[in-house]
Amino acid sequence: MKKILPLLLIFVISALTACGGNRNDVINIVNAAIYESEPAAERHNLKLGVAPGPYGDMFMETILPYLEPKGYSVELVLYDDFVKPNLALGNYEVDLNMFQHYRYLNGFKSEHDLDLSAIAEIPTVSMGVFSVKYRTLEEIEYGAVVTIPDDATNLARALRVLDAAGVVTIDPHADSSRATEADLSKNLKNVVFNKVEAPRLVESLNNSDVVVINGNFAYAGGLNISEALYNEVLHEGFVNVIAVRTEDLSRQFVIDILDVIHSGEFKGAITDIKSKYSGFQRPRYFLS
């Protein structure tokens, strides 16, 4: 059946395209049929889509070890942006993905007409305030150089983090989602902003007094998240999740993954003081 279906796919796509049909709809239907034709045992060989960041490592190190005794194997499929992992999931190229927060998932699936669902929140690395010069926020000196991302979205986010940390204050009448230095109503320590591309933030630590770094770049750069002077508090909707196709919500692999992430073993692997994930913001179920 698996050998016949790809040929069927080519034939049906060609026929419908000639008649003005929706090519992507046909691809999804046939891909679903291929998936359903696989023996149940093969469905224990999962493909996990991830983007740059710590979440592929987290799955392989803290979740997979507890799936392997049940016969699972997992292949990591790394994508170079935040668009492809959801498209791949919708097209049956991967079985699940783990890289995004609720708001991004909900917006993306609506925009691209994908039937995807989050199954659980996961520990999430947030933006942090780092320094090799200071040990606390209180030590930051008058006129200190603070390096922040130069793109508009992350620049505004960095300013919100500094506001929450008490370093600056964003004008309450300004749109904080688009904040720039011009929107600060207070800068009591007169910090001087230096802007660089987000991927260069970690290397800026050696020539800046303070650097506000996206969590994925901090992790990739080998920084200990728990040693940040301040870590962003992620609000509801901005904690990362594991996503699957909605039709797969009742499948056994989803049930088994949920069993793992709600287990004491998984929580212990994250909260251990020696764990590189110990500084990540923890989902609400960690409190139960």
Tell me briefly what this model is.
This protein is α/β, with parallel strands linked by helices. It is built from nine helices and twelve strands.
Class from helix and strand fractions: alpha/beta
From the N-terminal CA to the C-terminal CA, the straight-line distance is 46 Å
User: Which blocks of ≥5 consecutive residues have pLDDT under 50?
Assistant: none
What is the radius of gyration computed over CA atoms, rounded to a whole number of angstroms? 22 Å
Total helix count? 9
How does the major sheet shape up? 5 strands, mixed
CATH fold label of the largest domain: D-Maltodextrin-Binding Protein, domain 2
Count of DSSP strands:
12
Can you tell me about this structure?
The chain is an alpha/beta fold and 288 residues long. It has two domains: 39-124 and 237-287, D-Maltodextrin-Binding Protein, domain 2, CATH 3.40.190.10; 128-231, D-Maltodextrin-Binding Protein, domain 2, CATH 3.40.190.10. It is built from nine helices and twelve strands. It has helices spanning 4-18, 23-37, 55-67, 84-90, 102-112, 152-165, 215-220, 252-261, 264-271; strands at 45-50, 73-78, 96-101, 116-121, 128-130, 145-149, 169-170, 184-186, 192-196, 210-213, 230-231, 240-245. It has a five-stranded mixed beta sheet, sandwiched between helices. Helix 1 (4-18) packs antiparallel against helix 2 (23-37). The radius of gyration is 22 Å and the shape is globular. The mean pLDDT is 89.
What is the topology?
Elements lengths: L3 H15 L4 H15 L7 E6 L4 H13 L5 E6 L5 H7 L5 E6 H11 L3 E6 L6 E3 L14 E5 L2 H14 L3 E2 L13 E3 L5 E5 L13 E4 L1 H6 L9 E2 L8 E6 L6 H10 L2 H8 L17
Parallel strand pairs: 1-2, 1-3, 6-9, 6-10
Antiparallel strand pairs: 3-12, 4-12, 5-10, 5-11, 7-8
